[in-house]
Amino acid sequence: MATHGELECIICASPISPSTYDTHNSLNKTPLPVLPCGHIQCLPCLRRNFTISLRSLPFQPARCCGRDGIEPSLLRACLALSSRESHAYREKLAEHDARHKVYCFDPRCSAFIPEALRVGGRTARCRRCWARTCLRCGAKAHFGPCGELGEGGGTEIGVQGTVKGESKQRKAPSDDERFRRLSKEKGWKPCPNCKRWVEKTDGCNHIACLCGTHFCYRCGRAPYGNHGECAM
């Protein structure tokens, strides 16, 4: 319990003495962790808040009582985050805040593609494997109209942007074709937002994707809700 002249951590209620923190932009002390909502968290609780956020699936920003997350700059200053921690948090935050989430089509990669790498409103280049993904259907980048959801269409664009010529002879099915056949056989469904494939082994049709989208496994619609018998 805080005494006169002390503040109190909103989480654990431990006393916080302002004299031990930087309240005058000094370079010798840790900044007082005053959050956007006006509450204060002690450093151990703030660190725990940050760690839980970084490990959350789907990702949820570190926050206090409000909907707005804690500014990354405040977390970095108060917790003395390493460059690796700061970079990992900012990447997850950018993915969380993106209105249109795009992921690499290759299931062996599935990395999030930030808006800066989405070229010309049609394709996005993955910075992990350098493959190109169609922004409209989420499949491998291609020329021509998109096919069914997640399947692409037209002529594929290679990783280096070259066009693969069509052969008159029937070729063995590609990895993408084999995967589509397997997903249809197993009943896997793509998330309507990020196109990540999901397998439901048990339970109801309410799916919470890693990108944060809640959708119906049976009909594929999002957000999940009372939209018919499939929601039961």
UniProtKB/TrEMBL annotation:
| A GO biological-process term | protein ubiquitination
Q: Cross-referenced Gene3D superfamilies, in alphabetical order?
A: 1.20.120.1750
Extract the InterPro entries matched here: E3_UB_ligase_RBR, IBR_dom, TRIAD_supradom
The UniProt transmembrane annotation reads none
Q: Kindly state which reaction or reactions the protein catalyses.
A: [E2 ubiquitin-conjugating enzyme]-S-ubiquitinyl-L-cysteine + [acceptor protein]-L-lysine = [E2 ubiquitin-conjugating enzyme]-L-cysteine + [acceptor protein]-N(6)-ubiquitinyl-L-lysine
Comp. bias regions, Basic and acidic residues:
165-181
State the EC number(s).
2.3.2.31
Q: Where is the RING-type domain?
A: 5-232
GO MF terms here are: ubiquitin protein ligase activity; zinc ion binding
Keywords (alphabetical) are: Metal-binding, Repeat, Transferase, Ubl conjugation pathway, Zinc, Zinc-finger
Q: Where is this region: Disordered?
A: 157-181
- CDD domains of this UniProt entry? BRcat_RBR, Rcat_RBR_unk
By its UniProt entry, which Pfam families does this protein fall under? IBR (PF01485)
Q: What is this protein called?
A: RBR-type E3 ubiquitin transferase
Can you name the source organism? Canariomyces notabilis
